[in-house]
Write a structure and sequence with these properties.
This protein is an alpha/beta fold. 42% of the residues lie in helices and 15% in strands. It binds nicotinamide-adenine-dinucleotide.
């Protein structure tokens, strides 16, 4: 991939996926600018970009205030647009907050981008959540859209802004519809960030793994390095054959099996099952598996990291960096020892 000296703008670059992308892009020689206003309750963590602290430019601004950095947008060769809120539960509790973060801020941002950098390649972090309860598996890009929560509705609106502006010739947009992503640099201290973040937190703390329901629902979790590779390929391909790609993990596994793997990786933790709360049941989508054959065919991407390897690599990272991801737990341990 040709990222050497390429000017790359990453929104949400202090968060989980965005920071991993920023670090990889910088390693490929890109000139990286991050825009992230560290929204409370999202995954921003300044330590996430520690490896590129001196190399990347960081703007602590809301993407909705894009007029203030229109000059930087104008000189960007690729924009990776990852700013957003991922919590489905939060979106149901605070729908207007989710609308503000996932839709209105995007609308304001894109309105500046299309003026400042007409035709620029922009790769948006979409979500599989827009499909809702799957009508068939694995889910391809032609699956009907029927989100079960406000997050899915709002992310879909932002997706359509990108695609509409691309159709009008204002932007060169690609949308990656991501499945559950996991790995280093997740905000483990925040609850409601999905079951993989909870499992990793429990693995680090040596606590038992809890499964909601009977654990038979399938999930094709995606290691963050694989997700980053998909963004980089979509950002670099001179002419994208399509503008929407489903991006999923290497295998769809029952959640009970993922829990078992997490428990083993964590050193033999107990696994217990409990019923869904009514709040969670309401937004549960049952089983999900991605059909990622389009991105494989057109961009040559396929996920490489197995769940077992990904969990081990994640645990190793968090054990080493615990103080930056679970500070309270780290200080408790320090006091005890
Ligand atoms: N993590 C997943 O499993 C997953 C799955 C599907 C889609 N996605 C999408 O990928 C993107 C990144 O997810 P993540 O897991 O890294 O989340 P994250 O919460 O770790 O990172 C998102 C970052 O965006 C920033 N942000 C939010 N609104 C902003 C705004 N208006 N202006 C500037 N910065 C803003 C936050 O401060 C945060 O640092 C999101 O758009 C999310 O919807 C993630």
């Amino acid at each position: 991939m040709s990222y050497r000296r390429k000017k790359v703008l990453i929104t949400g670059g202090l968060g989980f996926i965005g920071s991993n992308l920023a670090i990889r892009a910088a390693a490929l020689g890109a000139d990286v600018t991050i825009v992230d206003c560290s929204v409370e309750g999202c995954g921003a963590n300044p330590h996430n970009i520690a490896p590129i602290r001196d190399a990347a430019r960081v703007l602590a601004l809301d993407i909705g205030q894009a007029a203030y950095f229109a000059d930087l947008i104008a000189e960007s060769e690729v924009i990776f647009n990852l700013a957003g809120e991922i919590s489905h539960l939060h979106s149901m509790r605070f729908p207007e907050r989710d609308l503000e973060i996932n839709t209105l801020a995007q609308l304001r941002f894109l309105n500046v981008v299309r003026e400042a950098a007409p035709g620029v390649r922009i790769v948006y972090a979409g979500t599989r959540q827009i499909y809702g309860v799957p009508e068939y598996l694995p889910v391809d890009e032609l699956h009907p859209v029927n989100p079960v929560d406000f997050n899915g509705v709002h992310k879909y609106a932002a997706t359509m802004y990108h695609l509409m502006l691309a159709r009008m010739g204002c932007l060169d947009a690609a949308v990656l519809r991501l499945t559950n992503v996991y790995g280093p640099r997740m905000a483990l201290h925040i609850t409601s960030q999905g079951f993989l973040s909870t499992y990793l937190r429990r693995m680090v703390l040596g606590e038992g793994i809890e499964v909601f329901g009977d654990g038979s629902q399938l999930r094709d979790a995606l290691f963050v390095d694989d997700a980053v590779e998909a963004f980089l390929l979509a950002g670099d391909c001179p002419r994208l054959p399509s503008n929407t790609y489903n991006v999923g993990g290497p295998a769809a596994l029952p959640i009970a099996e993922i829990a078992q793997l997490a428990a083993e990786t964590g050193g033999g933790l107990p696994v217990t099952f409990r019923p869904f709360s009514p709040e969670l049941k309401q937004i549960d989508i049952g089983s999900y598996a991605t059909n990622w054959s389009r991105i494989e065919r057109e961009l040559g991407w396929r996920p490489a990291v197995t769940m077992r390897d990904g969990l081990a690599r994640s645990l190793e990272f968090y054990q080493r960096e615990r103080v930056h991801y679970l500070p309270a737990a780290a200080s408790r341990l320090a006091t005890a020892s």
